Amino acid sequence: MLSNIVVVGGSVAGVQALETLRAAGYDGRLTLVGADPELPYNPTPLSKELLIGEMEEDEVRLITEEELADLQVDLHLGTPAQSLDLTSRKLRVGTSHLPYDGLIIATGSQAVRPRGWFDLDGVHTLRTLDDARRIKEAMSTGSPSVVVVGAGFIGCEIAAAARHFGLDVTLVEAAPSALQRAVRPDLAEPVVRLHRANGVRVTCGVGVARLLGTERVDKVELTDGTVLDADLVVVGIGAVPATGWLADSGLAVDDGVVTDATLRTSAPGVHAVGDAARWPRPGTHETIRVEHWTNAREQARRAALNLLDPGAAEPYTGVPYVWSDQFGQRFQLAGTARAEHVHFLDGSPEEESYLAVLGDGDKVVGAVGFGGSPRQFNRARRLVAGGASWPETVGRDT
């Protein structure tokens, strides 16, 4: 019987784990360890509603001090976990060693920061609430020229926010197309068109050679020799799992803490979830790591229940889902877009909106939508979750 559970990570997954444990009847000691000094918050609006002022900080909080008190959570915020001793079952946090008999790792991910770039003022990443505050202040003070490096979801959202403030903005992507980690080029093209129509200069296939300036950035030199004016640079070129503190722990770590299908790690009583976890993709022989809000919440719930009752542990079978709002349009992806076949249920990439399903073998494995009806996308998402027959799905629509 567990009596002392520690959750590491004041994240979406961390808060969901706390709430699930108490809702399931766990009445032992419960501790939350978080590197961020802030009360846990939802990171999703940071590059969208919060950045442009449509939401206030209180609205992005996941949980209040009063709610944490009601859950009887012992808080260690602003004190990152430093190491893990699996033999003694203790976690080093600052000068303290916290014992546990159950542990959920939900430390999330951290932004990739190219060496030397951040020696200059005016260069930012966007991962935390404090990051969002700094970028919002920079965008709303004067009329800075903005260069966003990386045309993934975060980069595209930040570029859209910069145009909300009426700023001059260039979006630079080293890959041949935007959103390359998520979808193939033709499916991303409507997003690029939308940005250009709203005044964003989009440059793909060209990387950043260096940032120029003395104490503060003032220019960005690209690999083709182009030099861009830049008073503000926001870097969104990916993230890595926040697992450095586990380097000498003995846990299996490989671009994320490796787990089995039930989210259990290589050590007894230890589970990993969210951005920090790598788990087997259902129905395949591969493992994946997903950096999306819905995945973090769903995994945390399943891991918490499995931790409390290992004999009845169930595999995590959730379908990854991500959405991105830009210039009033929503891009959505469920499952995977890396698939052999694509079939458009509505529209096409040449039009203002589209809805596509993707198939591998004889199953529907993904759905991608831009604009269009939320109800239609949810229907396609259910096809992915149910592993619908590809021939039948395509046949019904033709």
From TrEMBL:
Keyword Secreted: no
Reductase C-terminal domain sequence ranges: 321-392
Domain FAD/NAD(P)-binding: 4-300
Cofactors: FAD
Keyword set includes Oxidoreductase: yes
InterPro entries per UniProt: FAD-oxidoreductase/Apoptosis, FAD/NAD-bd_sf, FAD/NAD-binding_dom, FAD/NAD-linked_Rdtase_dimer_sf, Reductase_C
UniProt superkingdom: Bacteria
Pfam families recorded: Pyr_redox_2, Reductase_C
Keywords attached to this entry: FAD, Flavoprotein, Oxidoreductase
Protein name listed in UniProt: NAD(P)/FAD-dependent oxidoreductase
Taxonomic source organism: Streptomyces vulcanius
